[in-house]
Amino acid sequence: MSGPSAAAGLAELLMRGVWLLEQTAYEVGGRRVTAGRCRDVAVALDEVAAALREHADTLPTGELTVDSTVGGSDA
Questions:
Q1: Across 10-69, where does the E strand assignment appear?
Q2: I need a surface site. Which of 1, 7, 8, 31 has the fewest CB within 10 A?
Q3: Distance CA 74, CA 53 (A)
Q4: Taking the C-alpha atoms of 5, 67, 59 and 43 in order, what is their torsion angle to the nearest 10 degrees?
């Protein structure tokens, strides 16, 4: 699946991943993390990585270029 809705879904998955990593970092830092939590987070990160790889396959290869006319410059 590709397109704007797929990109929005990936963005949401990435934001959830950020939240999960932040929460887990506090648990690790406070020595409150469990083995099960570590495994669950690892599985979630695998899913994020797979989604990113799938999304990458839908993108053109090569570098993006910046259009100098974008941004309202009158120069």
A1: none
A2: 31
A3: 39
A4: -70
Q: Domain total for the chain?
A: 1
Task: State which residues form the domain around 37.
Answer: 4-56
The CB-side HSE value for 68 (13 A sphere, CA atoms) comes to 2
**pLDDT > 80? residue 64:** no
Task: Using alpha carbons, select from 15, 33, 36 the residue that is nearest to residue 24.
Answer: 33
Answer whether residue 65 is part of any domain.
no
CA distances in angstroms from 58 to 3, 6, 9, 42, listed in the order given? 9, 10, 14, 25
Give domain status of residue 39, yes or no: yes
